[in-house]
Amino acid sequence: MSEVxxxxxxxxxxxxxxxxxxxxxxPSAEAGCCxxxxxxxxxSGSYSTDELKEIGLTEAVSLGCGNPTMLAQxxxxxxxxxxxxxxxLDVLLSARRVSPGGHAYGVDMTDEMLVLxxxxxxxxxxTNATFFKGTIENVPLxxxxxxxxxxxxxxxLAEDKSVVIREAYRxxxxxxxxxxxxxxxxxxxxxxLKKNLDSWAGCLSGxxxxxxxxxxxxxxxxxxxxxxVHATESMPGIEGKIGSVYIRARKP
Length: 252
Known about the structure:
Radius of gyration: 17 Å
Helix content: 25-40%
Shape: globular
Largest sheet: 7 strands, mixed
Number of strands: 7
Strand content: 15-25%
Number of helices: 10
Order of helices and strands: HHHHEHEHEEHEHHHEE
């Protein structure tokens, strides 16, 4: 396992344990992801109270930078894959929307997150969701088996984003759609920060510029890539700027 991947795995193994404690100690809407992932996680307020009530969970199980399920326009009977599914919130919301007849899959490399996701699935009563152990660079699903690929602030954590994007393209059926929330580099970050493993695991160092992201989508074969910046941040004492983006693209 590479140093970057181990840094990411270790961070989110610890975060999974923190989320589990938050859920037990304060199961309310106020017990958000930022209690576990710090004040800049960016996910708070991304999900409506009604959709969270659907599955009996709170934002405490999200570590994302947006809500990719609102981009996906899911319909009953579809198959959905979440890259880096974490505690399972986006998978469980998607599973509800594709029912009846559909299924939602989540892939994650962290054992502690998989335990938490399966526990949340059991609590929610959702039965059409499956969580796999694996990496987002090597998804354990066959070619052309998925209608929609979603992801929430995870692709930036990969060492090579183009590999992940090609893998998403591989598992999508013709006409399938990519709908992800992610972090990007809007202004060049300090080269020293770009090499920091803790900052990489924290969704900073691994970000890439918008043009590079768009080129990776086109090179993989996606059509009509649309990238919309919905929030920007400048870190105190750090040169450069990062942004939260919503990304949509289609497989022809």
